[in-house]
């Protein structure tokens, strides 16, 4: 087995294990402690924020303005509409040199 | 389930996949281009996208692959980036618990960030998170992911101005939309603030990809700490 094949096969197996494992462990418990339940409900916002924050912290005017626009629009229009407008603004601002 | 209800769920799923297919396309292509540049064949690049199927971790893996680091360390780094999926699995698994076992096992394979977030959001709106909806959303994202990888691997050298096209910043924008979608949940703002600050600090101090796990842990721990304790009701 080449190194590349080893990396791909092991990474695929371990990644599936992470996606299956959380449920496999949790489904053994009949009831959830309220703190565990609160922690699980916090997961999406907590994790997704970490995928944004460093990029935002390094962002210039174009990036920050598009994030602000996305945040403002997503409370008013659909996710897809907000995304297309914010992305267009980002590309426009970058093309103009911001 | 009636045929028309099932059809509506499939259409909902396909609709939910569309922004993901668009916003992840640049990353699939970028991954393909970088993979070939770092020594993978086109076939290996596509195989990695089709089997690992986790964009950020594939990027990290390919980045390390180009630096002749020990293979097991590359695998460990990919695992570190994907560790957040344990939380996704535990969280969304509550909605998949009634599925037939085979569908559930298959479903977890497709549990990428946007799939997870949309499933949570749909469940929160009181809509059924059924296999029909779930796989209708998952299939286009999955198929386009390795088509995009193939395109990037084959034609990657042709993109002249990825920055001007905003390619590096589309996913943060998309993820912000998802985060906003959860703003009705309890303690949303403190959680977002804690995770945001912790991830930026960790990004500077420890480095990528650890900032994801550390930042997420900060927000999740805060939520657990602030959760009302049923043993001590408010006076």
Total DSSP E strands of chain B: 0
Uncertain stretches of chain A: none
**Could you name the ranges of chain B where pLDDT drops below 50 across 5 or more consecutive residues?**
none
Mean pLDDT across all residues of chain A, rounded?
Answer: 90
Biggest interface reads:
A-B, 65 and 101 residues
What is the average of the pLDDT values of chain B?
Answer: 88
Percentage of helical residues of chain B? Answer: over 70%
Instruction: Report the portion of residues of chain B in β strands.
Output: under 5%
How many helix segments of chain A? 4
The quaternary organization reads as: heterodimer
Could you say which overall geometry of chain A the principal axes of the C-alpha atoms support?
flat
Instruction: Look at the helices and sheets of chain B and give the structural class.
Output: mainly alpha
Structure annotation, total helices of chain B: 11
Number of strands of chain A: 0
Share in β-strands of chain A: under 5%
Main sheet attributes: strand count, strand direction, barrel closure of chain B = none
What structural class results from the helix and strand content of chain A? mainly alpha
Major sheet details of chain A = none
